[in-house]
Amino acid sequence: METVVSGIRSTGNLHLGNYFGALSNFLKMQKENRCFFFIADYHALTTHPKPDDLHGNIKQVLAEYLACGIDPEIATVFIQSDVPEVIELYLLLNMNAYVGELQRTTSFKEKIRRHPDNINAGLLTYPVLMAADIIIHKASKVPVGKDQEQHLEMTRRFARRFNTMYGVDYFPEPDAYNFGKKLVKVPGLDGTGKMGKSEGNGIYLFDSPEEIRKKVMRAVTDSGPKTPGEKPSEPVKNLFTLMKIVSDPSTVKYFTEKYASCEIRYGDLKKQLAEDIIKVTSPIRERILEILSDNQYLSKVVARGAEKARESASKTIREVREIIGYRSF
Ligand code: TYM
């Protein structure tokens, strides 16, 4: 049995990238392992949300998690800010995290480029808090998408550094995990890059079928292949990547052959893709609505989750304090 930790920031609804990049792997692991799933609502503060928005997003993301099939009877489902022990570990790890290595993190450099007016210290130490989230439960597997690979590398480094510094073999070095072996990057429909909340190109689990059809039909393509064997452009490759994720292999084969023989009609491909996405999202959307209306159930889930997560986290903190030298007289 492995210990598994995964999380998501509470900055907006879940999109297909979150679902297929991270969540679907977690769902496959929850029965056989010691699993923790949490909402990273401290991480969400880097973008300075208004209190009502922060609260609303936490509730929405929680309902969406549960609607996807995370079972709070098996996994520990909790909210990051309900487990203050993580802040203590974050502070302790910060003492051994170097400003230079944090400044070189790809996600930090990207944030500076995009939001030069809000380069706060929370952004700089984001990977340290993430490492604390993971190692506080001594996790060995972390189901995440490709974009989190570097953060996991840093988590391993911080864990190793702690062990070396104090001459102990205390924290395991966790791996980013995907059942298919390779970490996944779900593309957006705007031609380049990944699907993301801040990219504004997401298809959300909560989108209505009409919205999904509209978004998919608007996806960027090209003028079509002119000669057999021609390589698809980036936007078309992305459509095929999405199709491989959501559609039946026979559908992918059909359109791949149509592309190869230059007979493809992108309109047909998009229509099919939209329907296949809707097949995945529709039942989830219905459950989200049901769960959102049940405040009592949501409160019960997070209260129980906080209790279990704090039990695990406080044990680690006790042991870490002892290792570091905070001991009773
Ligand atoms: P966040 O909220 O950006 O994304 C949550 C998860 O969804 C994955 N993901 C994707 N995977 C594939 N393709 C995409 N287009 C795509 N977009 C998002 C992310 O890789 C992630 O797994 N730092 C984390 C939150 C976090 C965390 C943790 C995760 C905080 N502490 C500890 C795991 C363990 C984040 O920003 O995720």
Q: Uncertain runs with pLDDT below 50, 5 residues or more?
A: none
Multimer state: single chain
CATH class wording of the largest domain? Alpha Beta
Distance between the termini: 37 Å
Question: How would you portray this structure in words?
Answer:
The strands form 2 sheets. The chain has a 3-stranded parallel sheet with strand order 1-2-3. A two-stranded parallel ribbon has the order 4-5. Helix 3 (85-94) packs across helix 7 (126-135) and helix 10 (234-246) crosses helix 12 (266-292). Helix 8 links the parallel strand 4 (141-143) and strand 5 (175-177). Helix content is 54%, strand content 7%. The mean pLDDT is 95. With 329 residues, the protein is mainly alpha-helical.
Summarize the structure.
By secondary structure, this protein is mainly alpha-helical. Helices cover 54% and strands 7% of the residues. Strand 1 (3-9), helix 1 and strand 2 form a beta-alpha-beta unit.
Keywords, separated by commas or semicolons:
329 residues; Rossmann fold; Tyrosyl-Transfer RNA Synthetase; 2 domains; 5 strands; mainly alpha; two-stranded parallel sheet; single chain
